[in-house]
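Justification of resources, computational component.

The compute hours requested in this renewal are based largely on the per-chain cost of generating structure records like the one below. Each record pairs the submitted sequence with a full C-alpha cell output. That output is archived, and it is also reused by downstream analysis tasks.
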Amino acid sequence: MHASLLRPDDPSVRDAVHRLTAEFAGHRLPAPLVESVVRGSRDDLDSVPAPALPEMVERLARQRLIEHVG
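The structure output for this chain reads:
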C-alpha cells in the first residue's frame, strides 16, 4: 500500500470507514485495519471520476476486508 496523500476529512474515506467498521465489527477487525484498507482502496482508485468515488472506494474496501476475514 502506498502512502496516502488524502486529507483526513476526505468524505469518501470517512464515510466508508464508519460503515465498514460497523459492518465488520462481528469479525473483530480493528478500526485501524479497516481505515488502512479503506485508505489503500481510495489511493488505488485515484483515477476514478469523483462522482463514482465514494461507492467504488467502499466496494473495493469491502471486498478486501471480506478476503481478509475469509
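The CA atoms of residues 21 and 30 lie 8 Å apart. The two ends are 20 Å apart (CA to CA).
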